[in-house]
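Protein modeling request. Please complete all fields; requests missing the sequence field cannot be processed.
Requester role: graduate student
Desired output: 3D structure, token encoding
Chains: 1
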Amino acid sequence: MTTSRTARTRRAAGAGGGLWSAGAVLIALLVVLPVASVLVLAFHPTENIWPHLLATTLPRYAANTLVLTLSTGVLAAAVGTGAAWLVTMYRFPLSGLLEWLLLLPLAIPAYIGAYALVDFLDYSGPVQVALREAAGWETARDYWFPTVRSRGAAVLVLAAALYPYVYMLARAAFREQSAGSYEVARALGAGPVGLFLKVGLPLARPAIAAGAAIVMMETVNDFGVVDFFAVQTLTTGIFTVWLETGNAGGAAQIACVILAVILALVALEKVSRRNSRYYQSARQPRPVTKVVLSRGAGAAATVLCALPVAFGFVLPLGVIAGHALDKPGAWISAGLGRAFLNTLTVGGGAAALTVLGAVFMVYGVRLTGRRLPKLVLPVTTIGYAAPGAVLAVGILIPVAALDHRVADLVLAVTGHDPGLILTGSAAAIVLAYFVRFFAIAQGAADAAFGRVPPSLPMAARSLGRSAGGALREVYLPLMKGSVGTALLLVFVDCVKELPATLLLRPFNYDTLATRAHEKASLENIAEAAPPALLVIGVGLVAVGLLARANLSRRRGEAR
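Delivered output (559 residues):
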């Protein structure tokens, strides 16, 4: 009796595991499908304009993208690494506060920083107005001022918005290094610069390289900044070829070039540290003791750390908030409330579906232990590396084809034309967000599952709980904090996403990001300010959550 009952239990578990395994593979295919669709469209276009692209616009797109990406990566790496070194190794006025303030530019999407910079430095902005009044100049012909909308300005804006990625990873790497390494270097005569170049920088290089790679991938993905500054890149090329010439195959071919650039960046980062090995002592390393700087050096360090915060957060927030306060009527303008509700709907729905799918997939892989789900799990991170514009190309074409076939089928069967169900609604946007940010939810879910002691779900299964019951009654109550964090992070990224939303939204469908972009593109910063401030507010919540998590981790290490 007991033996037969055990056998039935194992058969039931195996059947359930098969369902979980199949579900995990289906979710992985859903995430990978848009990228595969781009490849199919690129190699089998309806009209092959690749030779025309090579002979005309593609070299310019590629050159601008390359210069913009490398320049932004180098500048962000320099700023992020320098700031992380100062706040980790030295004590100076406001150093404790600046350590957290340096994270704030993450709350400002780069395209909002672009609107603010142009408004601040343009001919009618406060800087040039003050110059003309102080010097008695009357027109722009009386003086020279740098061109605001340029590739150089785009590099500054993008680096100011993205350097925190390098800063966070570099600061963590510096903090994890042992004080003994620096003491030995000082005993051998190394000064402050020598300590940084010969000890700190080599040991933190993997973290800095990873942060710089993220910055460069985000730069390739950007559309709002380069479009506002009229810099023609591969991303703007997708919009031009697809929307202006109606050639989806050509857009897919440019998208493939972007994917090649992203893969090259990832490969370059891995190859650059292929032969490097960094190990820590098995014992808990003694933390670095901060050096108190003299008054002059401390003041210089304070200014150096405050500049990125001022340029990346204070300036954009000040300019946007100033316009919002100047014209409070913009808060009740037509369309803002609808854009806010649309943002909550698609962002919230996409976040819930993404986290639910990630939890299901990770649990299915862990439950079954089969080879195929384990192989496809890492592949699902490709969506985060693929820019939003690339995913939009890969989603819209097959989804539109499916939409038309479903509509034709319903019309043939019922005589009623339902219209375009998927592309005529926000469903395509939700799918793009799901694919784009699935890696964030998957990483959070995988880490959360790993923290649950295996004995607890095993006990639940031995008491007769099914796989779903163990997930519902054991795992989820213990993982609710991580699941909530993943929901918030995915929602924040959905709110800020611009390229995919612009390409996939139905007619006359705005989110906060698209409304801010459209109003700013029409030079109407006053109307763009309210949606931009709402986006910043959502971003600040995420930065606050990130800072709290880091603070909790440090307190745990201190104990």
